[in-house]
Amino acid sequence: MASASTNGFDPRKHVGVNAERMSHVSSTDFPGHYPGEDHSWNLAKFQEKLSVNIERLSNRSIDLDLVGVDASIANAFRRILIAEVPTVAIERAYVWDNTSVIVDEVLAHRIGLVPLNVDPALLDLKDPQNDQATDRNTLVFRLRAACERRKPAPKDTTDPRKLYTNSEVLSSQMEWVPQGEQATVMATNPPVPTNSNIVLAKLRPGQEIDMELHAVKSVGKDHAKFCPVATASYRLLPEIILNPQKPVPPHLAEKFQKCFSPGVIRIHPRTKEVSVDKQKARFESMSREVYRHPEFEGCVQLARVRDHFLFNIESEGFYPPERLLLEAILVMRTKTVALRRAAEALLNDTRGGTGDVEMAEG
Amino acid sequence: MAESTQKIKIMKGATPDLSAATYQIFDESHTMGNALRWMIMKNPKVEFCGYSVPHPSENLIQLRIQMYDGLSSLDALLEALSNLDDVCNSVEDKYRASLTDGRYERWEEKS
Fold first, then answer.
1. Which of the four pLDDT bands, split at 50, 70 and 90, describes residue B2?
2. Percent of chain B clearing pLDDT 70 (strictly above)
3. How far is residue B7 from each of residues A346, B25, B73, B110, measured CA to CA in Å?
4. CA–CA distance from B58 to each of A335, B13, B30, B61, B65 (Å)?
5. Maximum Cα–Cα distance for chain B, whole Å?
6. Does A160 have pLDDT greater than 60?
7. What is the mean pLDDT of residues B71-80?
8. Which fold has domain B8-100?
9. pLDDT at residue A62, as a whole number
10. Per the database record, which ranges form the DNA-directed RNA polymerase RBP11-like dimerisation domain (chain B) (predicted)?
11. Does the structure show a pLDDT above 90 at B100?
12. Could you tell me the domains of chain A?
């Protein structure tokens, strides 16, 4: 990589993307890695380099840039978003009657996956030791539907929706039954599925469903139905480094441009000189097509910026997309506080005693 | 989790002054393991830090810390935890600032 470093590739800043392999994958910003350089933790320096920029926001998703953090921190946020931000979903289904063709357990599983419009802050986590359902930790829904023929029978149609009542049982038919103080606490925003048009089952005349559904608060690592996001992912910002020593020949400029995603490479209309559009570089697919052509060898080095994370978070369920990262940060802080408390207790044990450390069986 | 079970245990084989110790942290995963490892390694008094998830069906991580000059690894762990809290705080502040300044594209997504 000696030749590459002379033309703008910086192994500290970049992760190299080569034809067959990635290079410089691990971060090296640790004390003692570079002689005579200080890489110890410094909050002021960190805050100076840190930047968080929202790029796009919709009613369902958010794109944001998190710049200046290590992969371990960005990954912690991503993992927490998927597995540890709590939501509310149906956990227990009591089937009083089900004569539909879908068996009880399959129907119960389908219903469990329906996202609910409930603020998890309004509920407590159910204590795993004491499985008691209360109005503070459980929401109750009732699902009742029976299919009958419409009379008089409509002529000239085979459409089940016209021939029968309740031919499709929809999520909107889940009816919330307030328990205890819930009627007042949740009056302003009564619990309903976020999407009212999910088909839960199909019925034909004579078939009937009657169920009681209990929703509880839990996290995605318990079951995927509690995951608040559809996806939460990040990628590193692509960077295309052109070699000033070996410019792209003007007659090949268009071919060079076509090796990249649309808009990423600009061609000067007169000189046919190629350049990279910095704003559009984030849309580069990193296909590495340019490495397949021997005529471009040495003209360009593909890289990714090590500490520039492009997050994409898609909300599914209660949380608006802009709240998700805040919830993840809150969970992370709760975890560090819990660990701090445990470590402080350990410190008191070791200092307060005779100096003997109580050790776990290895 | 019940209060009676410890969240963190020091494993057998630690030096008496805790300058080298392996901690078992229960109900944690790569999420905290890797973040903590990174923050502990940012401490110049730390000689070595690494973590592992010994088995996927056991919900715990093991965090090994070795210190220079016989310093306590528990102090390094506590320092790293408060530094991680500062990181979260800084990211939250910057995120909220970006949310309020409103210089981002808004669009309507069909669902």
1. very low
2. 96
3. 10, 6, 17, 44
4. 19, 21, 13, 9, 21
5. 61
6. yes
7. 97
8. Gyrase A; domain 2 (3.30.1360)
9. 98
10. 20-93
11. yes
12. 14-28+43-82+231-313 (3.30.1360.10), 87-225 (2.170.120.12)
The per-residue DSSP string of A263-304 comes to TSEEE-TTT--EEE-TTTGGG-----GGGG-GGGTTTEEEEE
Q: What predicted TM-score, i.e. pTM, was given to this entire model?
A: 0.92
Can you tell me whether residue A233 is helix, strand or coil?
A: strand
Strand partners, A315: A229
B68 Cα to chain A: minimum distance (Å): 12
CA angle A248, A237, A264 (to 5 degrees): 35
Q: Do the chains contact at A54 and B108, CB–CB below 8 Å?
A: no
pLDDT digits 0-9 by tens, B8-56: 999 999 999 999 999 999 999 999 999 999 999 999 999 999 999 999 9
Q: Give residue for tokens 């790569």.
A: B30
Residue B28 and residue A343: Cβ atoms within 8 Å?
A: no
Give me the residue spans of the domains in chain B.
8-100
Contact A32, B44 (CB under 8 A): yes
Mean pLDDT over the full length of chain A: 93
Nearest to A40 among B43, B81, B89 (CB): B43
The reply to whether ipTM tops 0.90 is: yes
Closest chain A residue to B4, measured at CA? A342
Quote the mean pLDDT of chain B. 94
In this complex, the residue of B10, B84, B107 whose CB is nearest that of residue A359 is B10
